[in-house]
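Treating backbone geometry as a discrete language has practical consequences that deserve illustration. Part of our work consisted of pairing the sequence of a single chain with a tokenised description of its backbone. What the numbers capture is local backbone geometry rather than side-chain detail. For completeness, the protein is quoted in full, as a sequence line and a line of structure tokens:
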Amino acid sequence: MSDEPGISPIPIGGNVSPSNSEADTPESAAAPVTEPIPIGAKTTTVKDADDHIQLQPEPSSLPPGPEPVALPEAPVAIPAPSPPAAETPAPAVTRFFHTHAFTSVAGLALLLTALFVPHWDWAKALADASPNNPTAAWLAEQSGSSTFAGNIWEALRAALLTAIGGIAAFALYRRHQKFNTISRVILHVALTSLSLILLGIVIKSLGSDSTRWDFADILSSAGLVYPVVALFWSRPRWAQLLLATFAFGISWYAATQATPEDFTAAQASLLPILPALGLMLLGLAAGEALLRPHVSITPGKTAAWTWAVFAAGVATIAIGWALHHFGIAPARLPDAPLGTLLLGSGTAIALAAIFHLIPRKLLPFNAIGTYGIAFYIALHTLAPSLHSIFETHLRPGYLSLFGTPSTPLIQNILITAILWIATSWLASRKTASS
């Protein structure tokens, strides 16, 4: 504090005036009042806009104030994880596509086969009764006999094996879609193969005193090669066709370079397997081509693929006709010439493409193909019994009205019609229950 006259003491936190007279003036009374300065704080003098001298504390000398209270943070909402996007599955193949094409071809082939199985020699009986009839003579030559040597039977056998290969393309796709495990698919293939082999052996052993381990029957041949066909399912088309060509080539080479005496009975019974493998692989490739537009995630052009399969069938027919007509591969393999096999296979492929464009309800023999195995077994086992039943409950010679030469053919037609009606009834009941 100063005791000098004219200078008043400066209160802490007060205003500094040059003299008492200035402090009493109105101007000084209007000067702003600052906040009190804490004790011990260093000060500095500053002038405001009215030239008033003020003391202000230095910020570094101020005592620490209370620490700021941290406010609780607002909870952050964590968004719930979005469910993973479901994979777009391939469209399921409906039974329409399963039974529409190759099943109808198999039904037609079985229907024509049924005209020969109960009585093989009906064409020969007609030819003997009418020696001057060229049509009867051609039928007798083409239909052959119970030795399975006729070209018509060979072509029907080839068409039926090709149709089985086409059906396998759809069946294997459905099994993979249903089971989704390779072990269950393998089990399905093994059981199907074993069942077909045993059924074929049973049919070949009818009328024999012991079991005939002969694999020349259609069911046995199809059962033996079915695992190989399943192995080549969904493989590149060129691989399927290459293996089919290899099977045909080996068969043709064995038929041209060897004689029947070079093979044992067991080896001779296995020779038809290679042509059966080639025929079923051709059907597998055609079936997958018809199936492709319906199982692709990006739908394809169904008509384009169908006509491509039709063109492939026509090309196969042309190759078979050339081999048969020009005698390029006349050797039997061992059941038929290669040209005849390709004629039957190409016809089956072309018909499957046509049937694929026709509504199923307009193909009445589709029911026979749906129950093809039952129809085939009944044809070999029930046909003689049905003939005996007719003679017992009607009268012996109940078909004599049509003449003796025509009786075997009429019997075949009658038995075929009965089996056709039975399979159609089963198919209608299954459709009604589903």
